[in-house]
Amino acid sequence: MTVSSETTQDTAQGVILTAAAAEKAKGLLEQEGRDDLALRVAVQPGGCSGLIYQLFFDEREMDGDQVQDFDGLNVRVDRMSAPYLTGATIDFVDSIEKQGFTIDNPNASGSCACGDSFN
């Protein structure tokens, strides 16, 4: 099943965050009660296919970060992860079958059966 969502920013550089993903992330930040955090998207070694995605709130600003603003939500991608994530679309799905953030990455050549890692 493919879920179509409108994006809050259409860009060839960096990641693309859908309106649903931006809204969910901003809601989670409001629950934390902090306005100094950004959503960090990173790629780390691990999983059955070699690489895994990491999404978390971060107060750090690292040298070389790509920073994008999605309607007031800052999204940071470190310089090592950026080549793996250019053009990737982050969405939030809330259905009977599945709930959570999803990443559609045109740079991934394959993924594992569980869908948690890619190469």
Automatic annotation (TrEMBL):
GO MF terms, alphabetically ordered: 2 iron, 2 sulfur cluster binding; 4 iron, 4 sulfur cluster binding; iron ion binding
| A single GO BP | iron-sulfur cluster assembly
Pfam assignment, any one? Fe-S_biosyn
Q: Where is the Core domain?
A: 17-116
Query: Mind telling me which InterPro entries this protein's record contains?
Result: ATAP, ATAP_core_dom, FeS_cluster_insertion_CS, HesB-like_dom_sf
Per its UniProt record, what NCBIfam families does this chain match?
iron-sulfur cluster assembly accessory protein
Q: Which PANTHER family match?
A: IRON-SULFUR CLUSTER ASSEMBLY 2 HOMOLOG, MITOCHONDRIAL
Q: What is this protein called?
A: Iron-sulfur cluster insertion protein ErpA
Native organism is Actinomadura rubteroloni
Tell me the classification of the organism that encodes this protein.
Bacteria, Bacillati, Actinomycetota, Actinomycetes, Streptosporangiales
